[in-house]
Design goal:
Layout: H1 3-7, H2 11-15, H3 21-47, H4 50-72
Length: 104
Amino acid sequence: MPTTNVFGARLEDLDARVMSPAWRNALSEMTARTRRLFEEGRAVCDGLGGRLRYELRLTWLGGVRILDRLEQKGFDVSRPGRRWAGPTSRPSCGTPSPGAAESP
């Protein structure tokens, strides 16, 4: 069963840019699930070498940043976010994004 059905989220609400509690709950659950999967996969970045290690790590950091922003916005995807103005810091392969859980 799709997550939207589990939470009662209606596509019509999303099309109308209405963030119902059902949509917030669905997005919250999927964000938490995605974050867990990202944490499980983080070791892949750390286990590689060369350029691929950095490319995967940057992809990982970008995904985590999107999850962070969703949480900060209260999962309201109907509001436009601010435009990207460039990196605020230079990430490295061993540095998690702010607010990300440390890996064991």
